[in-house]
Amino acid sequence: MTISTNTNRVADIVAKTLHAHGIRHAFGVPGGEVVTLIDGLEKAGIPFSLARHETSAAIMAAGASTISGKPELLVTTVGPGLANAVNGIADALQERVPLIVISGIVDRSTRARYTHQVIDHAQLLRPIVKTSFEIEPESAASTVARALAIATTQPMGPVHLDLSPTVAALVSPNNAIIRPPTQFGTSASITDPAIRNVSERIRVAERPIILAGLEATRCNAGPALEHLAETIGAPVITTYKAKGLLREDHPLSLGGAGLSPLADKVLLALLEKSDLVLMIGHDPIEMRLGWLDFVADRSKLVDISNAPLDHAMHHAGTRITAEPRAIVQALNGSVAGRNVWAKGEPGVAREELGQIFATKAAWGPHAIIDRLNDTAGSEGLVTVDSGAHRILLSQKWVATKPFSLLQSAGFCTMNAALPLAIGAKVADPSRRVFAVMGDGGLEMGIGELATLRDLNLPVTIVLFQDRSLALIALKQASAGLASTGVTLGETDFAAVARGFGGYGVNVENSDEFSHELEAAGKRGGFSLIACRFDASAYDGAF
């Protein structure tokens, strides 16, 4: 076989096909098996960003994908490289991210004899990817196009491709690039039986409510949903990842739900009182066990989603399989305004939620979130890691735009905020990006501070430093157990940040914090603001 150094290598066909489908960013840790692929990506206009760990690289691609609205790419080397990425790929599956994973693989001619670093990639990933293929010279473009189609079909998720170094470097026998088809969405008609059914149920409902999720956000259903909510007087609850679908300063917004027992006490009671629940693009993968069967009368649940039903967390009496935006737009053309919720229960619930999560101390997690929300404003983008701070922030945060608060909400993996922030900033350098983390999460992936430095990304890291795995400590306490294995030593993160070439500072009051937030926005490199407080500040917080 002839090895090529021109632009018609198989690696170039792979890269050009990825580019034709909108991929503009690749993240990973290289190895000898993928050097030709990385060269092809760079030549095709897909720059490769070096991460310090493959799981972080996968989550960086997820952050970039959320902002770009397109699939993005993870590149790993053979064996240990791909194995390192398992957590990040599993996160992409449960977060519904159309992640394309390309791993190097030992050449077929030696694979049966050779054992060094050789594992069955497809078998390893089988439970956490939608499918896995090996790229062959004759069908490289078609295989990549198929992988992209599968990754972007609802529910979106990761797809894995193996590419051996010899195949990557071969002259491609087929230079055709498979481009994505022109797609047209269909609009539901007001004469459609499904629309007539739901419209009639809205017409007679006295206590309607909307529960919206990520799928509605992704298809840009927000404007139509706001119009529907205002027309029929329905309050809106969202999942954490759909925060901002209806701006949360809107009087009909009840904010996000999913993990807070205190919020659930209010919201689940309201849902039980309702007589119609419109679940619009709602994915229950984000919700805690308290939402398994969240109403006694399931007949009042109308589930509107284009994704196949893959759970049994609730059993809706009516299900409409269609794009949520199209259904909501059709409903807007067929319903009229009504006087609903005669006793004003949604307004009471909104006030109660405000009181539960109100800031009562001059310093601590509540005050930090308030100051950060003020600084980020409507244009800032915030990522948040798993932990106690995430639950509190997701309840207190006032999101006025969709995708302004990013997190791992289905998989809830730790050490997600920093790589999400890196990916988001790479995809949109114009937005100010904040990564909100706990000390435990940052210590898991502290090497990515070097990625921030090397990519010269002015991300602001807000560190909740309580010297504890606070959420686990709270769960131990609620179970009547001793606190074990949750105490963290005191790391000087400000010094660590400076050691990685960034700016680092410790703060212990709101005025210092506000000053440092403002200063960080004017700095060229990354800034780390370590906010120190005692973990007891979370007691009874959510």
TrEMBL record:
Q: Does the keyword Thylakoid apply?
A: no
Gene3D superfamilies per UniProt:
3.40.50.970, TPP-binding domain
Which GO cellular component terms, listed alphabetically, does the Swiss-Prot or TrEMBL entry include?
Answer: acetolactate synthase complex
Instruction: Return the InterPro entries for the record.
Output: DHS-like_NAD/FAD-binding_dom, THDP-binding, Thiamin_PyroP_enz_cen_dom, Thiamin_PyroP_enz_TPP-bd_dom, TPP-bd_CS, TPP_enz, TPP_enzyme_TPP-bd
Q: What terms describe the molecular function in GO for this protein?
A: acetolactate synthase activity; flavin adenine dinucleotide binding; magnesium ion binding; thiamine pyrophosphate binding
What positions does the domain Thiamine pyrophosphate enzyme TPP-binding occupy? 385-530
Thiamine pyrophosphate enzyme central domain: residues covered: 196-331
Keywords, in A-Z order = Thiamine pyrophosphate
**Can you give the residue ranges of the Thiamine pyrophosphate enzyme N-terminal TPP-binding domain?**
9-123
Residue stretches spanning the membrane: none
What Gene Ontology terms for biological process does this UniProt record contain?
isoleucine biosynthetic process; L-valine biosynthetic process
Superkingdom, taxonomy of origin: Bacteria
What family does the entry list? Belongs to the TPP enzyme family.
* Stored PANTHER family: ACETOLACTATE SYNTHASE, THIAMINE PYROPHOSPHATE ENZYMES
Protein name (Swiss-Prot/TrEMBL): Acetolactate synthase-1/2/3 large subunit
The organism encoding this protein is Rhizobium lusitanum
